[in-house]
Amino acid sequence: MLNPVFPHRHLLGIEGLTPAEINHLLDRSDYYVALNRAPEKMSDALRGRTIVNLFFENSTRTRTSFELAAKRLGANVINMQVESSSVAKGETLIDTAVTLNAMHPDVLVVRHPDSGAVKLLADKVNCGVVNGGDGSHEHPTQALLDALTIRRRKGKLNGLLVAICGDVLHSRVARSNFLLLLTMGARVRIIAPRTLIPSQVDRMGVEVFTDMHAGLKDVDIVMMLRVQNERMRGSFIPSVREYFHFFGLDRAKLAQAKPDALIMHPGPMNRGTEIDSDVADDFERSVIREQVELGVAVRMAVLEILALNNRDIQARKAAS
Question: What pTM does this model have?
Answer without folding.
Answer: 0.94
